[in-house]
Amino acid sequence: xxxxxxxxxxxxxxxxxxxxxxxxxxxxxxxxxxxxxxxxxxxxxxxxxxxxxxxxxxxxxxxxxxxxxxxxxxxxxxxxxxxxxxxxxxxxxxxxxxxxxxxxxxxxxxxxxxxxxxxxxxxxxxxxxxxxxxxxxxxxxxxxxxxxxxxxxxxxxxxxxxxxxxxxxxxxxxxxxxxxxxxxxxxxxxxxxxxxxxxxxxxxxxxxxxxxxxxxxxxxxxxxxxxxxxxxxxxxxxxxxxxxxxxxxxxxxxxxxxxxxxxxxxxxxxxxxxxxxxxxxxxxxxxxxxxxxxxxxxxxxxxxxxxxxxxxxxxxxxxxxxxxxxxxxxxxxxxxxxxxxxxxxxxxxxxxxxxxxxxxxxxxxxxxxxxxxxxxxxxxxxxxxxxxxxxxxxxxxxxxxxxxxxxxxxxxxxxxxxxxxxxxxxxxxxxxxxxxxxxxxxxxxxxxxxxxxxxxxxxxxxxxxxxxxxxxxxxxxxxxxxxxxxxxxxxxx
Length: 493
Description:
Layout lengths: L4 H25 L2 H6 L3 E8 L10 E4 L2 E11 L4 E8 L8 E9 L2 E9 L12 E2 L4 E2 L4 H14 L2 H15 L3 H20 L1 H20 L1 H20 L1 H25 L3 H17 L1 H21 L1 H5 L78 H5 L67 E3 L5 E3 L12 H5 L6
Parallel strand pairs: 1-7, 2-6, 5-8
Antiparallel strand pairs: 1-4, 2-3, 3-4, 5-6, 9-10
């Protein structure tokens, strides 16, 4: 049979197309080289506790992508082994978890490879995925049986009531439920983005909960006190309502009061702010004063009890006065000398001399024990000084003398401390007024004073000039002397 050239060309084209299609089906779809020779694939053994519905030629996925299939499923003495054929061009870490899943409710199981780390080592020919790293789904038959038993345990009427009430509760709430689900999704996404912080909170929640457990008694006491407060509020509900009704008018009156005090209140507060540092400095003294004041008031009231109640035989106060003259003698150290002291009858008030006037004897001497030299320093506990400057300095108080000097200037000293400068005192007789614009006349310098010992039997003494003198009123007489006669001034001849 002779065929035309055109037919031969058509047959050649058909044969080429057929061979190409068969090759594509064999190599691309059926993957005959892989099935027959395993080209481009390697085998891995998967150990399972049970088959879980897995079958031959089931798919194997890695990160949701198909990377192989199940070549064989066989029984072993300890469970089931599945032979996996995986693609060589996909690097799969060996530290992974293999799980058997279903693509639908009717079956179609597949193996999902879930890596625990993206780093190596990677799977290779002959590796074994151990049974501890595999998971199989629960038996669907057991699940259906349990579901059937659960539904049978529910009475039909109650189940119908539950469905009807659920429809009544959720019917028409699809927009709200949708927003709820969207909000839950957004919350889950935010939680995923802040996974490290949430993990930290969960890890550290234990110590926080432990503190709550350890302070359970305090929490219970706080709850009990809160219950007491709420009970009191409930019992005094009328009073609380009255406060709420009258609170606004009272606030308005208070505002008006502050408005009226606005011109003077800032000045008062500014003055108080100025006084506050002084009060803080003398806080200990103020506290002692507040402590001693009630006691002093109580003593004063106790002294006045006889006069208050008129107790028979007890008129006046329970006081005992003991006249002690010159015991101890007055302190003259640190003051103006006797020649510079003013007469007590003068009525003018000249300026004070330069320097500080106070008793400058030792702090433990009996002279003027409550004088300025024994004032406690406020900022230096344990230190006493007559001036603030000396209190704040590191210097210690140095007395001029012991106060027992019986001759010479009582202020003569080698300590180097300054003493009040002398001043001119005008000579003026008592009762003579001083012209306001008249310059004071220089006073005559009085004779120097001296202290000497005398004989009490004869009244004789040796003066500063070395001569012997006699003063008769210094000698003892046979007449008795009383304290009245000692206080009376000596008669002028």
